[in-house]
Amino acid sequence: MSKPAAGRMFQDINFKVKSASGKKLEQLIGVEDSESPESGPILIYIKMEGISWSQYFLESCFGVWENWGEIETDDEAYIYPDYGKKFEVEGQIIKAAYCKDNEITLEFETGEKLTLKYKDPEDWDGDTEMVKCKYESE
User: Fold this and answer.
1) pLDDT per residue over 65-81, tens digit each?
2) Based on the number of CB atoms within 10 Å of its own CB, is 41 exposed (0-12), middle (13-18) or buried (19 or more)?
3) Contacts with 137 (C-beta within 8 Å, 6 or more apart), sequence order
4) Predicted pLDDT at 68
5) Overall domain count for the chain
6) Does any domain span residue 1?
7) Is this structure's pTM higher than 0.85?
8) For residue 123, is pLDDT > 60?
């Protein structure tokens, strides 16, 4: 794996974000192309209790998670839906955050999870989607 860029914590097919475990999700903001929102999120901004903004996204088969500090949501080329409200996860406690097999997942203590994945798992430059479902306890 190549050396990560400044602020980049992870860039790999599989990783765990240990600092997210046990943190309350304060905000989750999607970034979508304003001309083609059906293409799914380009990236996700995440704010967790006690941690400045981070962002995560999928890029050419890799999951990427970066410390970001502050975010800007005023570029008119993009829309910024509130995924925390949309998926009803705002304020929930994160059990785990990880990338596995090119999908980035947030698991919550409620038994629900949000997964950012490629719509077509074979098209690593294609559209992405965020999906919510229940997960199986270990």
Assistant:
1) 998 888 988 899 999 99
2) buried
3) 111
4) 86
5) 1
6) no
7) yes
8) yes
